[in-house]
Design goal:
0% of the residues lie in helices and 54% in strands. Strands 2, 4, 5, 6, 9, 10 and 11 form a seven-stranded mixed beta sheet that branches. It has a four-stranded antiparallel beta sheet with strand order 1-3-8-7, with no helix packed on it. It has no helices and eleven strands.
């Protein structure tokens, strides 16, 4: 069974940093890309970043380029999202995704 468990959300002031982590299990990591998405209140789900496990290729959404960094830890089977220079508009529930499976989400609130 594929399982994704996010952690690391919280409340932070604008220009601060947070690091989210997605603990993954139950699938062959090399075959997939793992992504982070977010959904702000009243808005549609937005792509944040993804990483291909096999070759470490990373893709970022336009709104986070240069501020967020996605990485994987093969020893821990985790995908992390380092978020720097946070803005109030980054406030959202952040979800980890692989194929059609989603984690439960972790909330990030950025105060101005």
């Amino acid at each position: 069974e594929v399982q994704l468990v996010e952690s690391g959300g919280g409340l932070v002031q604008a220009e601060g940093s947070l690091r989210l982590s997605c603990a993954a299990s139950g699938f062959t990591f090399d075959d997939y890309a793992i992504g982070w998405f977010r959904q702000a209140p009243g808005k549609e789900c937005e792509f944040v970043a993804s990483i291909k496990w096999r070759d470490n290729i990373k893709v970022y959404g336009d709104s986070v380029k240069g501020r967020f960094t996605i990485s994987r830890d093969a020893a821990k089977n985790t995908v992390d999202l380092q978020m720097n220079s946070l803005k109030p508009e980054d406030t959202a529930d952040y979800y980890c995704n692989v194929h059609s499976v989603w984690g439960q989400g972790t909330r990030v609130v950025v105060s101005s």
